[in-house]
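During the second year of the project, the team shifted from modelling isolated chains to modelling whole assemblies. The rationale, set out in the original proposal, was that interfaces cannot be judged from single-chain predictions alone. As a representative example for this report, we include one of the complexes processed in the last quarter. Its constituent sequences, exactly as entered into the pipeline, are reproduced here:
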Amino acid sequence: QVQLVESGGGQVEPGGSLRLSCSASGFTFSDYYFNWVRQAPGKGLEWLSCISTSGMTVYYADSVEGRLTVARDNDHDSLSLEMNNLRAEDTAVYYCARKSRLGLGELSHFDYWGQGILVTVSS
Amino acid sequence: QSVLTQPPSVSAAPGQQVSISCSGSSSNIGKNYVSWYQQLPGTAPKIFIYHNDRRPSGVPDRFSGSRSGTSATLAITGVQAGDEADYYCGAWDNSLSAWVFGGGTKLTVL
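Output from the structure prediction step:
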């Protein structure tokens, strides 16, 4: 069955950096686009980034562009997110989500989500 | 401020019908498919409607989606206590080259 498992969360000091990973199993990882989405405590969903099957095309939300780098390793079925210069407002649960192949690349909907991982930015 | 606009909350008594609206623009809902996600408390979102009006297997047929122009609607008939959750609409925005979500609507079953 499809599984997406995020790791690498925890507490980070303001101004610091974080690196999250998303490990995938149960399907052919290289066939799918992936996204990162976050949710601040008590708030709605915020899309962060979308990466193509090859990793050659990456879209970023304006709110995080310049601080965020997303990459994938198709040989190891994994996705990564690196964010620097962290602020208190980056405190959130971070989800990796798979794009369905029923749609067209980045336009498609999210058909599977990881369980999410909490990142807390605090001194 | 979300690009897609949803009401913050809706409520309905068990067995009644309720609708959740999602208003966008010609660069998102007006051009691309809308999807809807259900998020139960403390869990990850789950796809409930895709391609405006398609239900994934396992989603009850009490849930239906529609799109007209630059707006979309999620309708739930025969509301049940287990439907109490947050619902989000989403679509790709061609102008922003970004995925956009609505702010979410909390469904309360009275």
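The radius of gyration of chain A is 14 Å. The first strand of chain A starts at residue 3 and ends at 7.
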